[in-house]
Amino acid sequence: MPSTQSAQPLNTDTERPLSEPSIAFIGAGNMASSIIGGLVESGHSPDAICAADPSPESLERLRRSLRRTAPVRTSTDNATAVSGADVVILAVKPQVMSQVLEGIAGPVAEAGALVISIAAGITIDSMRARLGDSTAIVRCMPNTPALLGCGASALFANARVDAAQRGHAETILGAVGIVEWVPTEAALDAITALSGSGPAYFFLFMEAMIEAGCELGLERETATAMARQTALGAARMAIEGDADLVELRRRVTSPGGTTQAAIESFESDGLRDTVKRAMQAAANRAVEMARDMG
Ligand SMILES: NC(=O)C1=CN([C@@H]2O[C@H](COP(=O)(O)OP(=O)(O)OC[C@H]3O[C@@H](n4cnc5c(N)ncnc54)[C@H](O)[C@@H]3O)[C@@H](O)[C@H]2O)C=CC1
Ligand SMILES: O=C(O)[C@@H]1CCC=N1
Fold first, then answer.
1. Residue 128's CATH number
2. Known SUPFAM superfamilies for this protein (predicted)?
């Protein structure tokens, strides 16, 4: 039988590859749990991951979500988790970010860690002001489908981030979906409005379709099953199909048929403008949240 030993050199203290960064998650809620789950399933050593959260309930939910794999390390103290980490992932709500950064600035500087923030609307400048000018920072906007490994994350790095650290950021977020680097930090506000908040738009559209289906006389259970499967099928065709979105739509739309009647109704009701206004509102809110943080 061939040996299954890792080809990479190992850190003899921990038996994990030297190239594998140790990662501290600050906040162990929904997004952190998704990313940790993806990392562990893609082969990252659980003992190279520590999650800190003051809420024992959050830590317990994280442990339960990882019940099929070896447990990650946990702590109720952020500074303890950060100590010695190569990468620190900030996965707390924007409202507590200021207090969190002040508590970990010392250990982050000491470890020379890369900081990756997934918080909406928290700028690199505001983090740098609390962590120090020399801190390597990546701002990331992921989304909740990360939970199923089909997330979409956009990344922007400050000038302190080196090539190896960019690689770490890509590997970590790549464990739960696709990753795109954006050329400016401002582009992240647009990304937040598109893919960060986007899953909720599709859920809302599906809710509206289910309600309309019920009004047309369907049982709710039937309407729900058909709407869900239609969303899945459309998403898969958009990604895996052989044509662009306009062509895929054209193929459903028989001239003078039912789809044309519906599309004309959407267009005359201003669906495209409705979407533009909603996404503008989301992007504006991201900018406001950044201003509130200062
Ligand atoms: N939910 C979403 O769709 C997305 C969320 N985000 C961002 O991800 C971040 C986290 O969001 P969720 O995971 O949804 O929130 P969540 O509420 O599920 O998790 C936040 C966790 O932070 C913990 N926490 C509170 N104070 C803390 C402190 N001082 N130190 C350490 N942990 C603390 C809470 O106990 C909680 O477990 C937010 O900044 C949000 O803007 C980004 C993209 C999508
Ligand atoms: O609603 C929010 O503020 C966060 C950011 C993107 C998705 N959820």
1. 3.40.50.720
2. 6-phosphogluconate dehydrogenase C-terminal domain-like (SSF48179), NAD(P)-binding Rossmann-fold domains (SSF51735)
Q: Cα–Cα distance between 26 and 116 in angstroms, integer?
A: 10
Dihedral of alpha carbons 283, 126, 168, 20, sign? negative
- Please give the tally of structural domains in the chain: 2
**Contact in structure between 97 and 122 (CB atoms under 8 Å):** yes
Instruction: Tell whether residue 233 is among the known ligand binding residues.
Output: no
The Cα 16–Cα 244 span in angstroms is: 44
Q: What CATH code is carried by the domain that includes residue 274? A: 1.10.3730.10
Distance set, CA 145 to CA 30, 83, 288 (Å): 11, 30, 25
Distance from residue 255's CA to the centre of ligand 1 (Å): 48
**ipTM surpassing 0.95, yes or no?**
yes
Looking at the chain, how many residues does it have? 294
Q: Are residues 168 and 202 in the same domain?
A: no
pLDDT for 199-220, tens place per residue? 999 999 999 999 999 999 999 9
Among candidate residues 91, 101, 11, the one with its CA nearest the CA of residue 59 = 91
Ligand 1: residues within 6 Å at CB?
26-32, 52-55, 58, 78, 91-94, 96, 99-100, 118-120, 141-144, 196
> Which ligand approaches the C-alpha of residue 88 most closely?
1
Query: Among 92, 108, 195, which residue has the most ligand 1 atoms within 8 Å of its CB, making it the best to mutate?
Result: 92
Q: Is 91 annotated as a binding residue?
A: yes
